[in-house]
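quick q for whoever's on today - can somebody do inverse folding on this one?? i tried earlier but teh output was garbage lol. tokens:
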């Protein structure tokens, strides 16, 4: 059911129903997890994820329709888990006084400056590598809009073209850490950058990954994706999948 709002009065009214016929997406590229070691998905594409619950009507309005669709609809935020079972290094006092995302030093995250690997073979078609990592000041979205720098929300990033309809986008990379260039061909598992805190990377160190049908994430459509050779941990058990989707809360060990 669609809900509409009168822009002048603010009054909401409803207009009928529509029937949706979903179709399965058949992924062509074989993807691998773009980070190694013990990692978790702090935010994925489940119902409560901020990636999914992106208010496109508001975003289009404040950015003068810069966004065509919700590019992050199927994206995942990957962050490392350390030997202490946490996402960041903490002193005994910090363990006592801190919880969730209450911390002062982003560089204590195990993900900080961790290597990023090409998730599949492909060609580098777009790179940004000069934006500062925002350790002390949050990303100013209003300023980015006013200065026509909306794409800066991705921070430093890499786009890899795998075929004519599938492109990997990797966001929030460390400034000056990208070691490939536009036009380069990369192989699965090739180290291509490091994780930083550039762009609108919210409140924790992570790698934002998404698969789109084009290189321009403001215009391309989001695609659901599966990863190959995934080892999911469930308590003391580990289950290896030839191919599977991953989402919020999953814990993975990638060799």
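ok took a stab at it. sequence:
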């Amino acid at each position: 059911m669609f809900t509409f709002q009168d822009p002048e009065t603010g009054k909401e009214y409803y207009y009928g129903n529509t029937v949706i016929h979903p179709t399965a997406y058949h992924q062509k590229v074989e993807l691998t997890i773009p980070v190694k070691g013990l990692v978790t998905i702090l935010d994925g594409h489940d119902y409560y994820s901020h990636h999914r619950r992106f208010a496109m009507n508001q975003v289009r309005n404040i950015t003068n329709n810069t966004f065509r669709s919700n590019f992050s609809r199927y994206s995942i935020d990957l962050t490392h888990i350390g030997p202490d079972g946490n996402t960041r290094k903490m002193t005994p006092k910090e363990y006592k006084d801190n919880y969730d995302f209450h911390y002062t030093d982003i560089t204590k995250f195990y993900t900080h400056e961790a290597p990023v690997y090409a998730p599949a073979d492909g060609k580098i078609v777009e790179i940004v590598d000069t934006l500062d990592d925002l350790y002390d000041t949050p990303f100013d979205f209003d300023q980015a809009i006013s200065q026509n720098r909306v794409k800066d929300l991705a921070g430093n990033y890499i786009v890899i073209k795998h075929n004519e309809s599938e492109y990997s986008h990797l966001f929030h990379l460390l400034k000056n850490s990208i070691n490939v260039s536009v036009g380069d061909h990369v192989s699965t598992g090739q180290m291509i950058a490091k994780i930083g805190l550039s762009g609108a990377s919210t409140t924790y160190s992570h790698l934002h990954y998404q698969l789109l049908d084009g290189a321009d994430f403001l215009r391309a459509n989001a695609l659901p994706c599966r990863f190959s050779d995934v080892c999911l941990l469930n308590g003391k058990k580990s289950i290896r999948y030839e191919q599977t989707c991953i989402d919020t809360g999953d814990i993975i060990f990638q060799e």
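fwiw The mean pLDDT is 90. also The longest strand covers residues 156-163. so keep that in mind when u check it
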